[in-house]
Amino acid sequence: MDSLMAPGTFLFEAWQARASLASGLGVTLLSSAFSIVIATVCGIAMGVALSYGWWWLRLLSRLYVDLMRGIPVLVLILFTYYGLALFGVNVAAFWAGVIALGAFATAHVAENFRGAVESVPAGQMEAAKAIGLTFGKRLRYVILPQAFRRMLPPWVNTGLEVVKGTTLLSIIGVVELLLSAQQQMARNYMIVEFYLLATVLYLIVNFTLAQLGALLERKTSYLRY
Amino acid sequence: MIDYHFDWSVITRNWDKLTDALLLGLLLAVISLAIGCIIGLLSAYARLSTKKWLSLPAWAYVEFIRCTPLLLLIFFLYFGLPEFNITFLNKFESFVLSLSLYAGAYMSEVFRSGLSSIPKQYVEAAKAIGLRPWQRQVYVVLPVMFRITLPAVSNNLISLFKDTSLAAAIAVPELTFVARQINANTFRVMEVWLTASALYLATAYIIALLLRQVERRYASIR
Q: Which of A86, A88, A199 sits opposite B68 (nearest CB)?
């Protein structure tokens, strides 16, 4: 045991780096969480606009979705990072990254929402209209519960994409898990070991997220129609 | 923003550089897709195999890659492989290797669902007319599968093309790298990033249009 933990061994270095790596992991989780929350809230709103909006609203949201899906996330992040300063908004790299990732994922959530809503038979909406429910109530009590289950798997996928996308924040200097691992490598040259360590941490986060998604899917399976 | 004056000359001056970079990204994406298709096809067959020693590694490969950030994979192969004395890969080859491995996992899922969606009767009919196992695959299963999976393959090509932007992180001079360089040299932020976005968008759109033509042409059999 002593020889395993002796100075210069990987375990020793990893133990030395535990605080930095943990804070990197924290930044990764935090930025993912913020982006996912933004994307879910804005994405559902945009999804409603995309499916039920006036024609100009539909057009605008369609334009937004297609724009976001055609531009690489890295370009969005760099654009936001360098561009926000021009608007006199002086935000930290972390927030520029969160905004860009959130904006990107919003488009995906909106598109998934539209797909899920359209998979609900049109008769459901008509029936709800016929019994005199308002638009909000039709959505809340009739359409959304049915669309929800269809939305879950792609929503979890978007979440995984966001977690993986936070690695791009390292390029604008946010010390998240990847950059924090790289900082350790710069110190001890244990390149393979620390990349593998980072990979394992990402795997744990993503597997957990995927399992949670699967659990949520099972729990809501009664919503099948 | 109020006193920002657009000066597009920085774009016209660097136009050749930008389009070269765009074409490089496209080339990297196409090569990676081609290699990824081969990896994906092999691992899709492996995953559908009843032999555990074939299906298990294929499953592990797909799940591992799908849960690993691409940027991490790129860095790992670029900086990590030389540690194992694998130094003959330059940054282009190293990037293509990462992107191909990444694409392979996604293509594997696409091909797996394509293979399992082929009606059993096709294979049985092929068996009935006396085709050998490999002939059944080559003449019956694969052509049908490729038609079924064409839309998913073209989606993958577009997302791989967007993923080539990550090559900027290891200084491959593709569009994002060049745009960032021009941005750093001239600080014409809006012009540079608007142009880069527009170029990516236009290319993705053109690829989508072209592939839709191909799909329309070959989608007749299902």
A: A199
